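Recap from last week: sequence in, structure out.
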Amino acid sequence: MKPTTKAYSGIILLTISWGTIPLIIRTSEVTSIELVGIRTFLGTFFLATLLIRKDFNIKELIKPGLILGPLLAIHWVTMFESIELNSIAVGIGLVFSYPLFVLLIEFLRGNKPKSYQVFLILVGFIGLYYLLDISNITSLEGVLYGLISAISLSLIITIGERFSSQLGGLKVAFSQLLVASLILIKFTYDSKEWLIDNIAVSIFLGFFLTGIGLTTYWYVVKIIKPIAVSTISYLEPVTGVMLGAFLLNETLTTKQLVGFVLVLFVGMGQIYFESRIKTASIV
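Predicted structure tokens:
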């Protein structure tokens, strides 16, 4: 399998699996910040068992950890709070306005995105707007949290691209998780009883969705540019909203179904245009 195909397959599976996170947030008894603490702690522990078998210099992990770790903590805490304060559709929809911020950052960095990428991101945002369903907003504080989460995520992906290319996905994921887990260690300790009582959910959230998920994410960013990753990532809120509708009985309107179709179109469009460009370059 070609690296690009492997990367696209990885980010699609990852975004779909990450779409289950809102369900964990809405059905757990602990606070959202305690869930983030559990997630970062177990994710760090899991990646440490993998990294210890490899040769690495601890000094090379300090810089990405200190830069990306705090941003990751901010992103996850504000995302979880936004979802908890509003519906899954509103919370995750706000967070995934982040491709617009990635687009803005790329322009500010002097990188000119291709016209089809701008088109797909804008169409995807329209799809998110329909998925968002403004009438369901119940907390302006949650809206603020969602936007902060989106901005911090856009900074993570644009800043982290260079670190991923230099160090690899495993090292970048471990360094940022380690720092984030230290920042949130108090909240992890406060939720230790829930962690033990719900060990299966905790392992799924910490080991699979966080440890393996972040390593996969940074592997993908090393191969696919941040704008392309952002475009495919629109599939994550689609999964979250659909699961929320079917499992938590959250309302899914006709307008939201239109948004669902638009986001799927954007994901397929990104892969189509990328394959056309690759084929043309070979010819």
